[in-house]
Amino acid sequence: MLKKERRKMRVRAQIVEHLKIGRAYYLLGLHAPEIARTAEAGQFINIRCAETLDPLLRRPFSFYSIDRDAGIIKILYEVKGRGTEILSKYKVGDFLDIMGPLGRGIDELDNGGIQVILLGGGVGGAPMAALAEKLHECGMRAIRVLLGASTMDRLIPFDVFKSLGIEVSAATEDGSLGYKGFVTDLLKKQLEKFERKDCLVYACGPKEMLKAAAEICRNKGVKCIVLMDALMACGVGACQGCALKVRDEDGVETYVRVCTEGPNFDAREVVWE
Amino acid sequence: MSIEVDLSIDIAGIKMQNPVITASGTFGFGLDYLHYYDVNKLGAVVVKSITKNKREGNPPPRIIETPAGLLNSIGLANPGIDFFIKEVIPQMDSIRIPVIVSIAGDEIEEYVELASRLDKQDRVAALELNISCPNVKKGGLEFSTSAEQVEKLTVSVRKATSLPIIVKLSPNVTDIVEIAQAAAAGGAHALSLINTVLGMVIDVKMRKPVLGNKKGGLAGPAIRPIAVRMVWDVSQAVDIPVIGMGGICTAEDALQFIMAGASAVAVGTWNFVNPTAPLDIIDGLKEFCIKEGVKDIKELIGCSWK
């Protein structure tokens, strides 16, 4: 439990890129070499968006991209409340107080020769970009990306995936781009093509989407890793605020901390309420 | 700048190098923040409340941000005393400052058992009795709102241990002074106040309370003036030292509590936002004393009463 090395950091990081993406999202690049050095896909940073007491807490964001050589980390976020509203006003050259890398990175990558499906709903697609980069770096080529959103304006950019030569399929609820309907419908169709033991699904997005994806995967006997979101106060495991109910192999239900035991969990362990 | 300022304080035999500690429930077991700074620079740490049995805590959502505050209903989630003694205490080797263990229970017997078991632990410097957690159904509020129960509990725990006992008081009472006096009469060595203020946030779209437990305890800068006032009232009414807490973020905030009568101060919610704030506060206290020609910070305790 107690690690001597101080791998978690709190730094003042300079903004090197801040762009509005489509109508809904922002891409924020930060120069934080200390964090980039050990950051893993699936982990997150906790940003202090305001210097004032209101809003009080930091806001967690998962990595969209990690460039160790350049010492740059990127997040892709949506303005959802006052914290992200304030964050969106920062300019290139400004500094932000950030903590990270936090949480467990995704480490279940060692099964060679499998087909990986990355499933992202809305801005939940963001960590899939970092994961795609990591999988690609590990030499994995059998990757498919399925992205969903209510409308095409809310799909995250495809460029990271495209530059890695990864095929992207999109679904929009209004049919403005790609398949008309839910991205989980695409998942279902995709899974019909694969042998279950050879496939692994990573998913991040709204809870309803994750719940649906978990059920589809369970029915097919496919392992699904979900990246969970939660309201967080500390982000480091101290406050126990971000509780998630999980069920172990013996059926015993307990709460775990999304920030510390997660944010990624085997979908079969999550108790979907 | 060679002026020596004495920041040290002795509270009921707990020798602290400075009066800045961490508030229970905001610092885990003192281990989560070891990655961020040298915890040994603090006056003491107060670890999250321990109960006899493991507690899962309340259903999520457990927290919601409010104006300059944080409403929480964690519900004393903790691994229980067996795990704490076997697994957590051995990990505290790198913590060399006093470790104050917060204990909570539903019945007096539970507190007594916890106290007698922790009495044998060398690593434990003192016990804080959490009688005022607003987030557990049984016990919590019943203890904290009855002077008679508080006195009875304190007397019983005193018999079970030779460790100093700090009773943590709830602000959710008609007269906090009455409760403070009862704890003192029961033999408490010190008091800490305040715990969180009962509150609620309603999601108007869903037309129901946001928190899974519906009600929660409000913490953070929003409650600071309430806490300062209560420390002022209590510290003048009892002869035992008071540890003040409630929304402390800066040295100036800490000084308010000290001048209101607190012998030490605890940083709580602000740890989540600025984990190194306790160190900044220690530096700030020293700086203030130098600037004001104060040689010993103890001179400032209760200096605003006059």
Brief description of this entry?
The complex is a heterodimer of chains A (273) and B (306). By secondary structure, chain A is of the alpha/beta class.
Q: Could you walk me through the main structural features you see in this protein, from its secondary elements to its overall organization?
A:
The complex is a heterodimer of chains A (273) and B (306). With 273 residues, chain A is α/β, with parallel strands linked by helices. Chain A has three domains: 9-102, Elongation Factor Tu (Ef-tu), domain 3 (Beta Barrel); 115-227, Rossmann fold, CATH 3.40.50; 230-273, Dihydroorotate dehydrogenase B (pyrk subunit), domain 3. Helix content of chain A is 19%, strand content 34%. Chain A is built from six helices and 16 strands. Chain A has helices at residues 33-38, 82-87, 126-137, 159-163, 183-191, 207-220; strands at residues 9-21, 25-31, 44-48, 59-62, 65-67, 72-78, 95-102, 115-121, 143-149, 167-172, 179-180, 199-204, 223-227, 243-247, 253-257, 264-266. In chain A, the strands form three sheets. A seven-stranded antiparallel sheet of chain A has the order 4-3-7-1-2-6-5. In chain A, α5 packs parallel to α6. Chain A is globular. In chain A, 48% of the residues are buried. Mean pLDDT of chain A is 92; it is low at 1-6. With 306 residues, chain B is of the alpha/beta class. Chain B has a single domain, classed as TIM Barrel. Chain B has helices at 81-88, 108-119, 140-145, 147-160, 176-185, 224-237, 251-260, 270-273, 277-292, and strands at residues 9-11, 14-16, 20-22, 44-50, 63-66, 69-72, 99-103, 124-130, 165-168, 190-193, 197-199, 202-203, 208-209, 216-219, 242-245, 264-267. Chain B has an eight-stranded parallel barrel, surrounded by six helices. In chain B, strands 5-6-14-11 form a four-stranded antiparallel sheet, with no helix packed on it. Chain B has a two-stranded antiparallel ribbon with strand order 1-2. In chain B, β15, α7 (251-260) and β16 (264-267) form a beta-alpha-beta unit. The mean pLDDT of chain B is 93. Classes of the chains: A alpha/beta (273), B alpha/beta (306). Chains A and B meet through β14 and β15 of A and β5, β6 and α8 of B.
